UniProtKB/TrEMBL annotation, chain A:
The keyword Transmembrane applies. This is Uncharacterized protein. The chain crosses the membrane at residues 49-72, 79-99, 105-125, 134-152. Keywords: Membrane, Transmembrane, Transmembrane helix.
UniProtKB/TrEMBL annotation, chain B:
The keyword Phosphoprotein applies. The modification 4-aspartylphosphate is found at D63. It comes from Acrocarpospora corrugata. GO terms for biological process: DNA-templated transcription initiation; phosphorelay signal transduction system. SMART domains: HTH_LUXR, REC. Keywords: DNA-binding, Phosphoprotein, Sigma factor, Transcription, Transcription regulation. This is DNA-binding response regulator. PROSITE patterns: RESPONSE_REGULATORY.
Amino acid sequence: MSEPNPDPELLVAQRYSLASTRAAVTIVAAWHLGSDLPSTLIGWSEYRWPLVALGAWIVYSVIGVAASMVLLDPARKLPFGPWAAGALALLADAAVIVACRPEAIMAPANWGWGSVGWLALILFWRRRSWPTDLGLFFLANAIVMLVGMAAADSLDRVWIGKFLVILFGSMALQAGASAGAHGFDLAARWAADNSRTLARAEAAQRAAEQVHADRLRRYAQARQAAAPVLTRLAEGADPSDPDVQHACAVGAARLRRLIAETDDTPNPLLHTLRACVFDIEKRGVVVNLLTAGTVPPLALEVRQALIEAPLEALARARKQARVTLVATATQVIISVLSDAEEFVLPSPDGVHVATQVEGGLLWIESGWTAP
Amino acid sequence: MDRERLDRPVRLAVVEDLPVVLEGMHSWVAADPLKRVEIIASGDTLEAVLDGPGADADVILLDLELNGVLMIGRIPELCAQGRRVVVYSVHEDEETVLNVLKAGAATFITKGESSEHCLETIVAVARDRPYVTPTMAGALVVADASTARPMLSAREREALLLWFQGMNKQSVATRMGITEATVKQYIERARIKYASTGRAAPTKTTLLARAIQDGLITPDDIIEYQSLAAESGH
């Protein structure tokens, strides 16, 4: 519980778990204060050695407090383990039996052997083997009491009967409480696990739907990018026609952009630009790409709009092109100076596009300014 | 740029550790029809060049990275001696460019820039005139936009941006609807404004004095720029 855990379901399960351990600690304390203490005080005259009984009550209290602290804070540990504390509890139990006069061995004054199982409940709470531990402890407790009864010469049928009633009565209460609380704990953990599995499945489904929608959208864009020129070629357009070649180059550049623009990189705009430049260099065009500044985060639509006109200018370049990217926090400008022929400029929403032809060179600039 | 002739070629010392780059520089200088530059010394350390025949050089062309070591830290002492330093490098990010200029270098050329820009730069620097390479222009635009108190005017910024984008000065002039001389003035004035930032050096003072003589700026401008520099420098 001390380690941070971001999983809300697990947190809920842990809180249930904490509630059940607190309940166990409360029961043990209430029993010891509300039943064992009055029994000791009211039965004071029934003891041979009342101070031994009082001492046993105190030892029981110390073990109870230590076990409770360990149970409520898993970072702590009992110095010699739960069984050492269990053995000490059985000794206290035996001390109460010895302290009683023989005729009072079944009186409420001999509270120890009926009550010590509660201590065992919290001592063995966290152990995986708690049912076995508890069973062994109950057995040891019964033997201690039987030895005490034998010493008091009280092993006749009536006394054995009373012994069994008290033994099974207390064991049923103590084992029942332990089993109930552990079952409650388990149920909370199952619920948390189920809820987590369900959430994971839902997230996976949403992601799959998103991926599918993105694929459909990109497929539509790819069609849009390549279909017109492919249709022209299928209808018999001449591949040696420069116009057809330009259209092919533009289609290829758009496909390239589609592939590159959703890659997960720190600077997607520059990454896309580089990918396109790389393809155009492979065509034999000498491209000089220069950048200045750091590109601020841009939405995919803005990047698409921003790169559209420069991409077409690049695709149409014949031998050389200079591409620049200038970025400040509020402005991003891409320009291409190339030997491409003039073409009808696309004018996508959200960006401004400018052009100028001089000295046989086509300059185009595509700029975005923060709204 | 104007074709004002020097009475003798510019004496250039080249500090470069790659023989192939040195060869290239020799061939660029040799190919200049006006023979404006002459390489009087070369070597792969500053000491080798400046303690020898390079001591009288008008301009030092310094590779920013010599044998794997960045030379930015050596620039201030060279400038303090009154030497004109042109830095050239493959590192073209704006931070490097600005650090080099702040250290006192006259100008910055990337190894990607053409022979024409390179020779023009050396000649301009020898005459204590500002020359802005396109790479420097990009760095200045971005640096100016990211400071709290920009120094460039909108027109200066536009001219620098178009220059960075690769237009020649005539095309920039057409685009902006002004004369080529005005474009040159805008670009050079932007450089002068940034010359007054960073540490003081005799070369910078000469550059500023020359800019006032040429009417590029007035003495009042300088006071303003220096006060800005004093604030940002400490």
